[in-house]
Each structure stands twice: as structure tokens, then as C-alpha cells.
Write a structure and sequence with these properties.
The protein is of the alpha/beta class. It has helices at about 15-25, 40-55, 55-60, 75-85, 115-135, 145-155, 195-200, 200-210, 225-240, 265-285, 290, 300-310, 320-325, 340-355, 370-380, 400-415; strands at about 5, 10, 65-70, 90-95, 105-110, 110-115, 160-165, 185, 220, 245, 315-320, 330-335, 390-395, 395, 420-425, 430-439. α9 links the parallel β9 and β10.
Length: about 450
């Protein structure tokens, strides 16, 4: 029989406190389709009621926030941004989505996911108050809305110097967009994704992403297709937003270091992160204007270290199979990437192709793989003696069409002189399919 916990939340003898929280969180998952009869604007407006219930309005208004939207590269850009500012000596908070294994991955403090003890304390603080104050007219928030509210609570309570908030979906009606006065905004590369919600053209999609723009708040984007860039500039002009285009980072500025996240496309994300950090430092009085006039000619040591040590699981990550590699001569290496749109599939395929050909990749920083030493040893001392099998895994949720994604993968790999031996699929739950491509 369940008993009452110290904080008033029910505790079950059959569940750990953490499992109890996850059960409560799961109860917020809606069973409706993504579009259906859901009014995005109405659901968004209810968020401000939740902020009042949690007494978060003033706290959010006092936070120094970097807000990032986009189709591709949001998580990577936010990770680079957090790593740079942490290496500059600031107390950082980072909210991203989705998580791979543990929900706590979505909430990082100083680059590390929040500990279980703090997560539980803040979780029940928010959940219990919302449970007490909501009713039929204002029901409990949905899963992602609750997580966004929880992130604001965590970062305000932990008194972080900077909060980096990644948009979950779109921008205009995303839960993170309750922020009224961010310090700076960023929009990463735009492409065709979530079209059932955001629109069927790049212009419509860009309009939704530009929904994070705020009056006179500086914003940056990356080089975009003309259709998307036109809309971004138009929305920026309407709000008197000083919108600038951040150019991809020049690798020479790293002084011999490598980006912590692999792939050519990451130089675009890194360039945006540098622009966001420089502007945040300027707007908060931590960097002299004269230092920003010629950023293309210099990059502070803290910036280089931040870019080189940035780490994000499931983004161009290399993981050898320890069990198989220890027991049999045929080496098995998994290449993991969260690619899930046609454009990101091409970027993923380019990384995978170059990773196999470029032996220097296996000298990358240990943050990218817990088993790096084994990979280095395999490719340096054993590659000539033992055959290696590389398996690329990408993401294909049930709402996406594998027949649309696979051709982009196959063509790009073929262009890099790789032939496909086998393409299969494995199921991980009812809502997710992961396709394995062996080369």
C-alpha cells in the first residue's frame, strides 16, 4: 500500500523515489495525435497560468537567457554555447531535448546532468503545486510543457549566470517561448521537418522559428536558403531585431584543436555558438566592444577550449562493441547519430563516410566515446589483422518516412565510394524504429 512521502507526494514500496517521479511524469504524456484537435496557441497561452502557479514570472524575467530554435543543429549549437561560457567561468544551465537514456540529461548544470537528488526535489516542488492548483479548466501541463517549466525552476533556484534554452518544436508556440526578454536569440539551419505542424514550405517553417524573436533583442542565424532567409529578415524587421548571419567557424581559429562534436556541419553550429556567446558577454557587460569588432581574426582561449571539449551523446558518436571486440576477431563499431530529416541524413552520411576513411578521427577527444582507447588501438595496431564491421544507426520515429530518409543516406554514402551490403531495421518500442546500415 502506498504511503505519504515527506513532501506530500505518494510513495510506493515497490518503486524507488526516482521511479515514482518518472511514473508521475509519464502521466502527463497526452495520447492525442500531434495535430488533431489541439489548438497550439491556446495551449501555449495556458503556460502563463502555470508560471503564476509556480511563482516563476519574476524569476524568468531576471534570467540571462540564450534562446535557440531551428530545424537542424539546435542541440549541438546549445552544447557548444554552454561549453564556451562554462569555460569562461560562468555558472551555466542548459535545457535540451530529447534525452537518450535518462530524463535528467535534459537539464545540465555546468555541463553535467542534474543529480538525482536535486532533480527529485525540484520535480516534486513543481508537480505538487501544479497538482494542487490546476483543475478542469486549467489541467495539468503536458509532458514537454512540464519539463520546460521544471527547467526554468531549476535554473532560477540554482541561480545560474546564463540559461541556454533549446526550443523543443517550432518556436512561436513552444513552451520555452514564455521567455519575454532573452539576452540573445539564435536560429540554426532550417529544413523540412514537422511539416504537419509548422507548414509545408521553408517560408512557413521559418516564420514559426522566427516566433522566438523579441522586440529589439539581437538575433543570429546561419546561412539559409533564400526562401527561409527572406522570411527571417522580414520578421526581424517587423520587431526591429538586429539580425545577423553568423558565418561557419574557420577551423584555423582552433589553433590545432578539433571540435568536440564531429562532422563538417558542426563548423556552422560552432560559428553560431561563438556569435551567441560573444553577444551574450557583450550584452551582460562581460566583454568590451572593441574585442568583438574583428572576431574572425581571433578566438579567446576559453572559446577554443569550450568548442574542443563540448560533448553530446548520440551526435556523431563512435561506440565499439566491447563484448564482441573482446571475444572474436571481427571487430564491430557502431556509429551513432540522431539524424532524422533528409538534410541531416546527408550530413550524417558525410560524417560517417569521412570517419571511416579518416584515421585521424580516432584521435578525437575522449568525451565523444567511453571506449575511445579501444577504437584507437583497433585502428592503429589491429586493423591490418582483423576485419572491421562498421554499423551506422540513425533515428526514424514513427511519424517519419524511412523511404524518404534512406535515399539521402544511400546516395551520399555512394558519392563517397561506399557500397551498401545490408540495410535492415530493428524496433525499440512501438513508437520508434532504428535502421541499421552496414558498410
Amino acid at each position: 500500500m502506498a504511503e505519504e512521502g515527506d513532501n506530500g507526494s505518494p510513495k510506493s514500496s515497490s518503486l524507488t523515489p526516482y521511479e515514482e517521479a518518472l511514473d508521475a511524469l509519464s502521466s502527463l504524456i497526452t495520447r492525442r495525435t500531434r495535430v488533431g484537435d489541439v489548438n497550439m496557441e491556446e495551449r501555449f497561452n495556458v503556460l502563463f497560468e502555470y508560471l503564476k502557479m509556480l511563482d516563476l514570472e519574476e524569476a524568468i524575467s531576471n534570467m540571462k537567457i540564450i534562446h535557440v530554435a531551428g530545424t537542424k543543429g539546435k542541440g549541438s549549437t546549445c552544447t557548444f554555447t554552454e561549453s564556451i561560457l562554462h569555460n569562461c567561468g560562468f555558472h551555466t544551465g542548459l535545457f535540451t531535448s530529447p534525452h537518450l537514456i535518462d530524463i535528467r540529461e535534459r537539464f545540465r548544470l555546468d555541463g553535467v546532468e542534474i543529480c538525482e537528488e536535486k532533480f527529485l526535489a525540484y520535480f516534486w516542488w513543481c508537480y505538487d503545486r501544479l497538482k494542487e492548483k490546476t483543475d478542469d479548466n486549467v489541467p495539468m501541463p503536458t509532458f514537454f510543457h512540464f519539463l520546460a517549466l521544471l527547467a526554468f525552476k531549476i535554473f532560477s533556484a540554482e541561480q545560474v549566470d546564463v540559461s541556454i534554452m533549446e526550443v523543443g518544436l517550432g518556436g512561436k508556440f513552444d513552451a520555452t517561448n514564455v521567455v519575454q526578454a532573452p539576452t540573445v536569440c539564435g536560429i540554426t539551419s532550417l529544413g523540412y521537418d514537422h511539416m504537419e505542424i509548422l507548414g509545408n514550405t521553408l517560408g512557413e517553417i521559418a516564420g514559426e522559428k522566427a516566433g522566438i524573436f523579441k522586440h529589439r533583442i539581437p538575433a543570429f542565424t546561419v546561412p539559409q536558403p533564400d526562401e527561409a532567409m527572406h522570411v527571417l529578415k522580414e520578421k526581424a524587421s517587423q520587431l526591429h531585431v538586429p539580425l545577423q548571419v553568423a558565418i561557419p567557424l574557420d577551423a584555423k581559429l582552433l589553433n590545432g584543436s578539433r571540435l568536440g562534436l564531429e562532422g563538417e556541419h558542426q563548423y556552422t553550429n560552432a560559428g553560431l555558438a561563438v556569435a551567441l556567446c560573444s553577444t551574450w558577454l557583450k550584452m551582460t557587460g562581460h566583454l568590451e566592444d572593441t574585442h568583438l569588432k574583428q572576431p574572425q581574426h581571433t578566438l579567446p582561449e576559453q572559446f577554443i577550449k569550450g568548442l574542443a571539449t563540448a560533448s553530446l551523446q548520440g551526435r556523431a558518436q563512435i561506440v565499439p562493441d566491447q563484448l564482441i571486440n573482446n571475444e572474436i576477431s571481427n571487430k564491430l563499431v557502431f556509429f551513432l547519430d540522431g539524424a532524422h530529416s533528409p538534410e541531416s541524413m546527408e550530413a550524417c552520411a558525410k560524417w560517417f563516410s569521412l570517419a571511416i576513411k579518416d584515421q585521424d578521427l580516432f584521435h578525437q577527444k575522449p568525451d565523444n566515446s567511453k571506449f575511445l582507447d579501444k577504437v584507437v588501438k583497433m585502428h592503429q595496431g589491429e586493423r591490418a589483422q582483423k576485419k572491421s564491421t562498421q554499423i551506422l544507426l540513425f533515428n526514424c520515429m514513427s511519424v517519419r518516412d524511412p523511404q524518404l530518409l534512406l535515399p539521402h543516406l544511400m546516395k551520399t554514402c555512394a558519392d563517397h565510394v561506399h557500397s551498401t551490403k545490408r540495410v535492415g531495421k530493428s524496433h525499440a518500442g512501438e513508437q520508434r524504429q532504428e535502421y541499421q546500415c552496414c558498410f
